[in-house]
Amino acid sequence: MALLENPHLPVGSKPELIERYRLVAAEFRTSDLPPLETAYWLVKPRSLVRGTWEEAKEAAAWLGERLAEYAPRFATEHDRDTARLARLVDAAAERLHAGGDVSYGHYLERPSYLALAVVTCSPNRAAPGLTCPCG
Question: Sign of torsion, CA 90 96 31 2?
């Protein structure tokens, strides 16, 4: 069975785990569930795209705006630290400028989780075969 060759399922997995994997895999492309690898946001529907930018600084600024918007709801004081958030935005701008992807996640008030990602494309360095959903 080819499914057992998936690197995310150990060989000899229980049938219920295999079935759960099949269900998740079938819904993956249309759900807002974050992928294990950031580049695979590129296979998601266009409706999940919140913006496109030509410059890394513009994309990082959007990321900073989202972090600032949600910071009051972050679960820990450490995550709400504005200096730390500014460093995250600066690091994102550098990584995007170098052609990398950025993915940040923060626990919010229970049981919520905020997943933010900015993905480079045309082509993506980690997955060059994936195309931009808006391009």
Answer: negative
Residues 44, 29 contacting (CB under 8 angstroms)? yes
Q: Which of 57, 60, 86, 58 is nearest to 71 (CA)?
A: 86
Tens digits of residue pLDDT in 72-86: 999 999 999 999 999
- Residues 41/28, Cβ–Cβ less than 8 Å: no
Query: Mind giving me the DSSP string for 25-93?
Result: HHHHTTS-PPPSSGGGGGGS-GGG-----SSHHHHHHHHHHHHHHHGGGBSSHHHH-HHHHHHHHHHHH
| H or E segment to which residue 108 belongs | none
Find the radius of gyration of the CA atoms of the chain.
17
Whole-model pTM over 0.85: no
Helix axes 82-97, 56-70, angle to 10 degrees: 150
Burial annotation 51-60 (CB, 10 A radius, 16+ → b, else e): eeeeebeebb
